[in-house]
Structures are given as structure tokens and as C-alpha cells.
Amino acid sequence: MLIHFLGQPWVLVATLLIGPTILFLIYRRRSRIEAEEKRPAAGSPRATGTPKTAAAAPPPSENPGPRKSIGSGFRGISWGQPPVEGMKVVHEEGETRFFSRPSEDPRIGNVHITSVAYSFRLDRLSAVVIDLPISGYEPLTRHLTTEWGPPRSSADRGKHVWADPGSGPDASQAVLEKKADSRSARLVLSSRAANAERAANRPGA
Predict the structure, then answer these.
(1) CA distance from start to end of the chain
(2) H-helix or E-strand containing 11?
(3) Cβ neighbours of 73 (radius 10 Å)
(4) Same domain flag for 189 and 92
(5) Does a structural domain hold residue 15?
(6) What are phi and psi of 190, to 5 degrees?
(7) Cα 30 versus chain centre, distance
(8) 12 HSE (CA, 13 A, CB side)
(9) Which neighbouring-strand residues pair with 88?
(10) Could you please report the per-residue DSSP string of 28-97?
């Protein structure tokens, strides 16, 4: 009976027409399901081709350096110059003599300072030592950062260093540091060329 039914011409025609249609519908439904599975969920980030493990951003520069030069010397006396008229010797150490000026301005910007000593080695200015109360440490840090740019700082921010690039005769370095007693601070301006010369002449260098 089944063989007779399947042998009818109209059954063969129906099979040839309906079979491909069913297969096509199944293919379309499967393709739609796969497309929905690949589509990102609402609110999820779209793929951008970026690798899953992005390269780490480079660390910030440890020594950004000043935006502009610190300047040679201090208050009109440049590195390598001899003492000027009116200066008085306050201390001597071998080839180095420290001078003061009787009419020294007691402020840097709006920050009060307590003393300024000019260090001359072989009668040539090589450094300036400036003491100030601890209350002026943070205001002076802000003032110098405005003048010279971000410093290189210690982890506890108890010491800041600014440095000109290079080591020419006018290149300077500035170190602002809290003193050990924590009641005062000190700013030391120095000639980078003089520092390099001392380091080269140091025993064992």
C-alpha cells in the first residue's frame, strides 16, 4: 500500500516542490539564530579590533624638567662671577667662602625666607643656600613649580628637585628640602657645571 502511495506521480511532484522549501526555511531560521548569537548584547562595548590585552601606558616621566630655565645664579650674580661690592664673609671652608648681603630681600615671591648665603669657591659663585621656616615649604614649592615647572619629588614629598638640561656654564639645579628637625626647610641653587667638576675631582671618582 505504502509503495503504491509513494509511486503516485503527484506524490513525487509534491516531494520535489515541498522538500527544497522546507530545507530553505530551516536554513533561514538557523542563519537568523546564529546572527542573533553573534550580535553584542545591549549596553555591551562594541568590538573595535583592539587586542584583549592592551599595552600598558608608559609611566609618567620621573624627571619632567622645568618648562623654562631656572636662570644662572641668584639676584643678579651669575655662576662663576666673583663677590660683588657690599658682600660680607660669614663662613669659610677651605677653598669655599660664604657671603651675605646686608640688603637682602627677605622674600621669594610671597614666601618669607630667613637667610641667604652665597657660596664662592675660589672666588667664583657656585651655589646659593636659602633657609626658610617650614611653614613656607609648600607655598615655595607651588611658587617654584609655577616658575620652573613640575619637579622630581621624593615619595614623601619632603624633597623636590628642578634641573636645567645640559651642563653648560649657565645651567642650574635647585633642591628644596625639609630639614631633619622638621621646623625649617632649605633651598639650594647650584651650578650644574660646578657640581660636575666637584664630582669629577672627588677622591675615588
Answers:
(1) 112
(2) helix 9-38
(3) 20
(4) yes
(5) yes
(6) -145, 160
(7) 56
(8) 5
(9) 100
(10) HHHHHHHHHHHSPPTTSPPP-S--SSPPPPPPPPS----SS---SSBTTB-TTPPPPTT-EEEEEETTEE
Q: Is residue 42 part of a domain?
A: no
Confidence of residue 205 (pLDDT cuts 50, 70, 90): low
CA atoms in the 13 A half-sphere facing the CB of 180: 0
- As a whole number, mean pLDDT of residues 140-149 equals 96
Nearest-10 Cα torsion for 64, 70, 72, 76: -170
Is 94 in the same domain as 178?
Answer: yes
- Nearest Cα neighbor of 120 from 84, 172, 164 is 84
Structural domain count of the chain: 2
Please give the grid coordinates belonging to residue 132.
626658610
71 in any annotated domain = no
Average of pLDDT values for 29-40? 59
C-alpha 158/C-alpha 178 separation (Å) is 6
**59 in a domain, yes or no?**
no
Domain of 94, in residue numbers: 88-201
Q: Tell whether 23 and 108 lie within a shared domain.
A: no
Q: Which of 139-143, 167-171, 176-180, 198-202 has the lowest mean pLDDT?
A: 198-202
Q: What pTM value is reported for the model?
A: 0.67
